[in-house]
Structure of Amino-acid racemase:
Amino acid sequence: MAYLTLNKSKLQHNYQFLNNLFRENSIDWAIVSKLLCGNEKFLQEIINLGISEICDSRISNLKKVKSLNPDVETVYIKPPAKRSISKIVKYADASFNTEYETIKWLSEEAVKQNRQHKVIIMIELGDLREGVMGEELMDFYASVFKLPNIKVTGIGSNLNCLYGVMPSTDKLVQLSLYKQLIETRFNVKIPWVTGGTSVVVPLLFKHQVPVGINHFRVGEILYFGNNLFTGELVEGMKHDVFKLYTEIIEITEKPKVPIGVLDENPSGETFKINEEDYGQSSYRAIIDIGLLDIDPDYLIPEDDDLSISGASSDMLIIDLGETDRDMKVGDLVAFNLKYMGALSILNSNYIEKKVVD
């Protein structure tokens, strides 16, 4: 049976690495937990790290965080849907917002619940996902800050999330200037400029993050240790907090070329035959995961000599080469994961999740 592990000591190692980095740069930070898909065992490990703020894009996940530790600050990190307003006010201490009407609904609900709800105004910096346009920001803030039971505690932005626009010093300076404009015009204090995500961390290494950016929210680099500019592992971090283990359910020497008339498979793929493979065979292992669980492109075999031949809904085929490599039915094959692959596995109810040291 396939299962996913979270290595507690490697998670703690990466957390301490980032915590030291942010402390040295006088930056507050939060952990983004959306990758965990609400898994309570894994959420508990995040809380155990000692982080004071957790961000997620699913209100059900923030509800679980509050049930595990009500003292953790919870942040809903996408513009709220109207039909979720009451739950967001109840389970999220703060939310990211870009629409006045939505913040008005949050205000009305916060009054009903006798709570103060914090708001971070997201500003468009070019990636064209969520964000108030810069030229509209002053009027937007003027309307929002008058609403009862609403407190604007920050401004922020997202980059590299839709079109892949990369962060730069210029864009982060621009975000910092918006804070100064708001504070000067309205004689208020905006505590946080949350311009930092995992993709911005490499700029910290180069001392290219303006002093005004004083808050980061990170997930991917915590779990995978990767530099999103270069695609390489950050020196001093661990890449394998998560690991997927799959079980071999068949291992047989078979022809390399399919036998029969070829047409589209259920995934809509049509295979082309490599002429050099006629008459050749190789050992093929079937493992107990498939397209229902993960796209094979997001799997990284721990053994570099293994290659993935294909997948169906519930099974995945590995080419072992000219020998069976002393593998047998029941053996485990380990994989490291890309971010989107881990997201698929964590969202699957069919894959067991374990915490290991």
Summary: The two ends are 20 Å apart (CA to CA). The CA atoms of residues 160 and 166 lie 5 Å apart. The longest helix spans residues 169-186.
